[in-house]
Amino acid sequence: MIDDLLTASDPRAEVRAGGVNAHTHLYSGLAPLGMPSPPRTPRSFVEILELVWWRLDRALDEAALRASARLYVAEALLAGTTTLIDHHESPAFIDGSLDVLAEEAERLGARLVVAYGATERNGGREEAKRGLRECERFVSLHRKSPRLRGMVGLHASFTVSDDTLREAGELGRALGVGVHVHVAEAKADVEDARKRGYDGPLERLLALDALPPTSIVAHGVWLDEASVRRADAAGAWLVQNPRSNANNRVGWPRALWASEHVALGTDGFPADMAAEASSLAQEAAKQGDTRDLAALHARRLGAHALCATLFGTRFDASIGPGSAGDVVVGVADAKPQHVVVGGHLVVRDHALVRDDLAAIRAHAREQATRLWTRLPPA
Ligand SMILES: [Zn+2]
Hints:
Number of helices: 14
Order of helices and strands: HEEHHEHEHEEHEHHEHEHEHHHEEEEH
CATH architecture: Alpha-Beta Barrel
CATH class: Alpha Beta
Mean pLDDT: 93
CATH superfamily: Metal-dependent hydrolases
Radius of gyration: 19 Å
Bound molecules: zinc ion
Helix content: 40-55%
């Protein structure tokens, strides 16, 4: 099939591995469609969560989530990103929420890894237990699905109790999957863990056995070199999200170089991995961080290696996730002309094969307008 596609392509076109986004949020897909500004300007990272993202996630119902996921996945495929590793939260619609994300990825033909980020921030321990049950259900259902995998998820150390952390770790080990969790994204997470008597959030997760092998530690902005080495030794992957970190002004991750297992994610920004990589280069240059500039290529390859680990496929650093059959055909540094996922053609001549982007956008705008009326007060 690839030969046929190349024959029908721009003569300058080449075949390259599909992009992998190692940490993102499909639930934020409608946010660019006119989400109202917060009632006041957030003064800290926690206020960005309280005034923006936690109001959005509390307003999500099934229809809004479905439209959000459909738009996000469609735009990812058109940008040549074939795998999305999603971290999901929709507190008013927990049970079955991961199925909605999976159905939309399957419909359009993307590869997807999901986890529900269990938290106690709205409904205490009962809310956390429901989040973990949703992960358990999904992981068990999709152990052998060709393009879907589940993980256990936690929102972040600072929104859960020790009991929830222990249960997440136990569940991950019982299911043989890792835990996907935000760690040290901002200084507040570190301060919270210290107040609870731990050296930091990573140390808290490790002390409570909440990081089984192949866990995903998103951000790690405020982890020092020793903590990054501890994460690496535990078999966890760190995910750097430069556009999000710059946008939220949480700081620059100075110690990620100390791990061999770091991947690139977009944390809810569109899944255009070339744009994310160029942000990483710009931010690293601004920070004078030559180590991170050198690591740019490694970050993108890291996401491919993580994807191969999660799907149990072969990884060859020279070709990317070759055996997964996820490739894009196109001219270098341009949007791909064709996209193939798991051997199926999902984008042909810059257009989705299984749906229509204009129709997806129109439906997303309708759902977004309805969603903005549902935002709870700050
Ligand atoms: Zn995130």
